[in-house]
Design goal:
The chain is an alpha+beta fold and about 200 residues long. The protein has four helices and eleven strands, in the order βαββββαβαβββββα. The protein has two domains: about 110 residues, no CATH class; about 60 residues, no CATH class. Strands 1, 2, 3, 4, 5, 6, 7, 8, 9, 10 and 11 form an eleven-stranded antiparallel sheet that branches. β7 and β8 form a beta hairpin. α3 packs across α4. The two termini are about 20 Å apart.
Length: about 200
């Protein structure tokens, strides 16, 4: 599963999400709405957003001739003791729709997409006790690719621009692309709950 990392400067949004009523499907005039909320622990919240979308089929000359509606669900993880939260990354438009909904419903317009610094990526490596399988970075317009390096690698120096980081975390693969898209090769519920909590703790 892929995630994007966001940050809210206003922590009270967490309580507002908890109090929101979920809906079985989006209302007729809404493209996105809260579908399900589950409080996983006193500090962690899992919320699923429903997006109404359509597949469109047609031809070059006749244009759209058939629309097939479908339901898309977006997982999000929120934390009462952190200003950061995770939104499942399927595409940028879906993520933007979820954020716009959060802004409208919680009256919080201080949400921004985060880009991890080299120091924060190193914090993740150390906190999760991860092994670095691959790191790709750029320095002075020159590209580098290193395999199986340790956390003391010069690749994490502030002057470098890290494009891709592949980690082995407890025999599961995790990657960070362009400082924001975080991917794990596991979609099991128990694993995602534990992983997302450990990831946010690493960034505190």
């Amino acid at each position: 599963m892929n995630f994007n990392l966001f940050k809210s400067e206003e922590c009270s949004y967490y309580e507002r999400i908890v109090k929101r009523k979920s809906r079985f499907l989006s209302q007729k005039n809404n493209d996105v709405d809260l579908f399900h909320v589950n409080k996983l622990s006193p500090n962690q919240l899992h919320a699923v957003f429903h997006i109404s979308d359509e597949y469109k089929f047609g031809t070059k000359n006749s244009g759209d001739v058939l629309s097939v509606p479908f339901n898309q669900y977006i997982n999000t993880f929120f934390f009462s003791d952190s200003s950061m939260f995770l939104v499942e990354a399927i595409n940028d438009n879906y993520s933007n729709m979820v954020i716009d909904n959060l802004v409208a419903k919680t009256k919080n317009n201080q949400i921004r997409k985060m880009s991890l610094t080299n120091r924060q990526m190193l914090d993740i490596v150390i906190s999760l006790d991860a092994r670095i399988k691959l790191i790709e970075y750029e320095r002075d317009d020159e590209s580098f690719e290193l395999e199986n390096v340790d956390s003391y690698s010069e690749a994490f120096e502030d002057t470098n621009n890290i494009h891709y980081l592949l980690l082995n975390v407890k025999d599961k693969l995790m990657s960070i692309k362009m400082g924001n898209t975080i991917s794990v090769n596991n979609s099991e519920e128990d694993y995602l709950i534990r992983f997302t909590g450990e990831l946010i703790n690493a960034l505190k």
